[in-house]
Write a structure and sequence with these properties.
199 residues, TIM Barrel, 4-stranded antiparallel beta sheet, 5 helices
Length: 199
């Protein structure tokens, strides 16, 4: 995300400087940051800009960016794995296992083992491309501060509980597969677990 992006970059947490970004990468590598998440606000361009323009009134523009769940993995594959900041094991821990542990869903989620849900993503790290208007599938596909971002790796297949739902970036299953999962209340021991307990 280089150059000026105007109100498209209004989000929480805020965009960080290159220096801040490198410190955050070190925190991931050292284990002081143990999970990854993303801003995901499915609003279209008109709703984002609230009657203004991309370089219009920053104070009235809505917070958030769209499709965060769609570009999180490609960005982690590109800026993390391809750039040598993370190996594939660390990426899986950060994006899957540790997050499932924080939410009290491990090992049903975040693990590949007997008894776990077969939620799998198969990636091809050799794919090259760019995030642009044709990249997104969600309601807000016409705008993103990530437009122009170079991709080095992309998901080729996604499974939900053993069923293939996406293949070669095309939805191949339209069944509603969301399911409420009961989990324990988040107590102090879960929220403040030491980094070594999440690795």
């Amino acid at each position: 995300m280089e150059g000026s992006i105007g109100c498209w970059g209004k989000l929480i947490p805020p965009l960080r400087t290159a220096v801040d970004q490198e410190r955050l990468w070190r925190a991931l590598q050292e284990g002081s940051v143990t999970t990854m998440g993303t801003d995901h606000v499915p609003i279209d361009l008109a709703a984002k800009q609230c009657g203004g323009a991309q370089f219009g009134e920053i104070w009235t523009a809505r917070l958030g960016i769209p499709n965060g769940m769609e570009h999180l993995l490609p960005v982690m594959l590109s800026a993390g794995l391809a750039a040598g900041r993370l190996d594939v094991e660390a990426l899986v821990r950060l994006a899957c296992a540790n997050t499932a542990k924080v939410f009290g869903l491990y090992p049903r989620k975040g693990a590949v083992q007997a008894g776990s849900d077969a939620d799998l993503v198969i990636v091809d790290p050799s794919i090259r491309g760019t995030i642009e208007r044709g990249f997104y599938h969600g309601v807000a596909h016409e705008w993103s501060p990530f437009f122009g971002y170079p991709i080095h790796g992309l998901a080729r297949l996604t499974m939900v509980r053993g069923t293939v739902v996406m293949e070669d970036r095309q939805l191949v299953d339209t069944c509603r597969r969301g399911r409420y999962l009961r989990r324990p209340l988040a107590g102090a021991a879960t929220i403040h677990a030491p980094a070594q307990g999440l690795q």
